[in-house]
Each structure stands twice: as C-alpha cells, then as structure tokens.
C-alpha cells in the first residue's frame, strides 16, 4: 500500500505543471470552473495569473467582481471586501458605482457579528454608509444602506457603553464620561435595542 501510494503521488506530482503564458479567456474560464467547484483558493490563484499576464483585459474587472460575490456567498467577508474595494478603485464606472459600493457596505455588515470591540471598523463603516447616502440620495439601495447605517450606529453605542463600563471599574471617571458623551442618547432611548448576545464562554474573556 505504501508503494502504491508513493507511485500515485510521484506521477500525480509529475503531471502537475506550473501554468503560465495563457490567454486571458483561459484564466477567466479557470476562475469560473474553480468557483463552481467551490475552490475559491484556486480561483484566487487563477485571478492572480489573469491579472499578471493580462492587466488591461476587460476580463480582469469582470473576474474581480465575480470573485467578490463568490467570497461573499462563502462568508469570507474580508476577501470579498478586498475585491469590491479594488474594483471601486480601479474599474467602477458611474453606471454601477452605487451597486458595488452597496455590496462592499453589505459585506462589512454581514461580517459585523457584534460590536466586536473594534472602534476603527465601526467608525469606518459608519463613514462609508454616510458617504453613500450623501452621494446617492436616489439610489435603489438607499433603504438598505439606511438600515445598515442604523445598525452600525447601535453597535457603536453598545461599544461606547462597554468601554465606559471598563473605565468605571478602573475608577477612571473622566474617561468613562468621555465615552458616555459619545452616545446618542435619543437614538438609544427611542429604539431601546437589545444588547448583543455574547456566549458565556466568550464572556469569561470579555470585559
């Protein structure tokens, strides 16, 4: 059995060659095949080849957009946000810019399990949603972004309350009052949100 295993490993590796210098359509089709097989790591690898060998090909932005959606469907939100962000920086036109920006905001929202004690992430997400609402007041995605904006605001309130509680325990009253002053009291009182659910095994290491 060991000899048989070694035989297959040897010839399997021997047949596997490094691919390069292929047409853009070949790399693009390989990306689609890997996505259909559920192998996003392989799809990312083929995209690197497509972008390296055919940087000006119209298939590059198309593949970038598809990979962003594929990673989003697999709950790989960091990679999805990366592809959408790169697409916006390099290829987005006025015709589809609001849609791609909406997808990036949606990706961050899906990756936002709870307030996560990440001030920078929440602040940036709020800034992104505000920017979208100002730039596209008539977008069909506006109601969804408004909802996401509200959720991030509530997350920020919860985070500030938690940080203030930490400083209260430490006896740092000035710091506690600083974080409490950042809370939108009217929003909190009107909505009366339920605190994020944190499992007991997480609370052991939580604030």
UniProtKB/TrEMBL annotation:
Residue span(s) of domain Outer membrane lipoprotein BamD-like: 23-173
Lineage top rank: taxon: Bacteria
Could you list this entry's UniProt keywords, alphabetically sorted: Signal
- SUPFAM superfamilies, per database record: TPR-like
- Fetch the InterPro entries from UniProt: BamD-like (IPR039565), TPR-like_helical_dom_sf (IPR011990)
The UniProt entry, under Pfam families, shows:
YfiO
Q: What is this protein called?
A: Outer membrane protein assembly factor BamD
């Amino acid at each position: 059995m060991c000899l048989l295993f070694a035989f297959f490993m040897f010839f399997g590796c021997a047949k596997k060659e490094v691919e390069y210098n292929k047409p853009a359509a070949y790399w693009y089709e390989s990306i689609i095949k890997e996505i259909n097989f559920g192998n996003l790591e392989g799809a990312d690898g083929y995209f690197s080849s497509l972008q390296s060998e055919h940087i000006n090909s119209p298939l590059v932005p198309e593949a970038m957009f598809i990979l962003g959606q594929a990673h989003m469907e697999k709950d790989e939100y960091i990679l999805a946000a990366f592809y959408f962000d790169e697409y916006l920086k390099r290829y987005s036109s006025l015709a589809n810019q609001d849609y791609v920006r909406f997808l990036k905001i949606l990706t961050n929202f899906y990756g936002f399990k709870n307030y996560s004690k990440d001030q920078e992430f929440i602040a940036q997400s709020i800034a992104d949603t505000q920017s979208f609402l100002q730039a596209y007041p008539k977008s069909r995605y506006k109601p969804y972004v408004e909802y996401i904006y509200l959720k991030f605001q509530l997350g920020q309130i919860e985070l500030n309350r938690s940080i203030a509680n930490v400083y209260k325990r430490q006896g740092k009253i000035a710091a506690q009052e600083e974080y409490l002053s950042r809370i939108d009291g009217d929003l909190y009182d009107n909505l009366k949100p339920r605190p994020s659910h944190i499992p007991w095994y997480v609370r052991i290491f939580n604030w």
